[in-house]
Design brief:
Layout lengths: L8 E8 L6 H9 L17 E7 L2 E7 L13 H11 L3 E7 L6 H10 L4 E7 L6 H15 L4 E3 L8 H11 L17 H16 L4 H4 L1 E8 L5 E10 L2 H8 L4 H18 L2 E10 L11
Parallel strand pairs: 1-3, 1-4, 4-5, 5-6, 8-9
Antiparallel strand pairs: 2-3, 7-8
The structure holds guanosine-5'-triphosphate and magnesium ion.
């Protein structure tokens, strides 16, 4: 939407909702590039990811948050503190609902209690998974239970409805000077994102709780030649059994992880990447925090 006076608009938008709802997928879809990792598992996003989109006169600062596991108790969870602190500084809050899972009114109301001035926009994601009549019924449910008509329908995965949603967001951000240069897409570092790409591939290839306990740290980031980076990352695991599982038979699994993570990093940085992964056991009593 064009701002008639041509004045700058700028606003913070926090995306919240149940874990696995597709919040990170939506963020990536809006940005047109991958800034937040995605997986079919719960609790993929571990920390706030901030992405910046500048379009014409408007700048949107979008914050992806860790999903809510048990929304009724989300005040208790340290994970969720991240999300809560973003809410306080937001102009608009986007609450994501999954089309095939329905609307959790209690969770929505808990969210409402935690904010004061901000508007909450509801977005129903994964509309590709349901039939139209079911979608209409869900919209009626939401409208009936919370008296809200402003509901957007999207499939973040198929990039369906995302443009309309974006226009809706732009219309809601206030007139304010931009906070970032127009060409800046994020405030997360390349190093952090490269670690995240490796973590995403571990989530994909390694099952159960192991991916949640690994910690990835960059040991070396060497830009020797122009457009070429050598990266060494350490993957810290809890014990030798976890190490064996991540290595896989004949090292097959770590090879897959490494190859796919490298491709993601190359795509993001637009540079040739040499990625070396080292699996190490966490030292006892080494306090490496999972969340910053
Ligand atoms: N069918 C379908 N799947 C989707 C859509 N959006 C996201 N997904 C899938 O849903 C899963 C979870 O997506 P994420 O973006 O990681 O979800 P999230 O809300 O960020 O999850 P957490 O970070 O764990 O809170 C992935 O397998 C996505 O591919 C969609 O519109 N349609
Ligand atoms: Mg996520």
């Amino acid at each position: 939407m064009l701002n008639p006076k041509g004045k700058q608009k700028c606003g913070y938008i926090t995306i919240v909702g149940p874990t696995n709802a597709g919040k990170s997928t939506l963020l990536n879809s809006i940005l047109g590039k991958k800034l937040s990792i995605v997986s079919h598992k719960v609790q993929t996003t571990r920390t706030r990811i901030q992405a910046i989109l500048t379009k014409e006169t408007s700048q949107l600062i979008l914050i992806d948050t860790p999903g809510l596991f048990n929304p009724k108790r989300f005040k208790d969870r340290s994970f969720i503190k991240e999300a809560i602190s973003s809410l306080e500084r937001s102009d608009v809050i986007v609450y994501m609902v999954e089309a095939h899972k329905g609307f959790d009114r209690d969770a929505y109301n808990s969210l409402g209690k935690m904010i004061v001035n901000q508007e909450i926009i509801i977005i129903i994601n994964k509309i590709d998974l349901v039939r139209k009549p079911d979608l209409l019924k869900l919209m009626d449910d939401i409208k009936g239970s919370i008296n809200k008509n402003d509901i957007y329908l999207v499939s973040a995965l198929k990039n369906d409805g995302v443009r309309e949603f974006l226009d809706g967001l732009i219309s809601k951000v206030p007139e304010r000077e931009w906070e970032f240069p127009a060409n800046q897409a994020t405030n997360i570092s390349d190093k952090f994102l490269a670690e995240e790409f490796t973590r995403e591939r571990i989530l994909y290839h390694v099952h159960k709780e192991i991916p949640y306990s690994v910690i990835i740290e960059t040991e070396k980031w060497d830009e020797k030649k122009k457009n070429e980076v050598q990266i060494h990352q350490n993957i810290y695991v809890n014990n030798s059994n976890h190490k064996k599982i991540i290595l896989g038979k004949n090292g097959d699994k770590i090879k897959q992880i490494s190859m796919q993570a490298r491709q993601e990093i190359e795509r993001y940085l637009g540079k040739k990447i040499h990625l070396y992964l080292f699996i190490k056991q966490k030292k006892k009593n080494t306090a490496i925090e999972l969340i910053e």
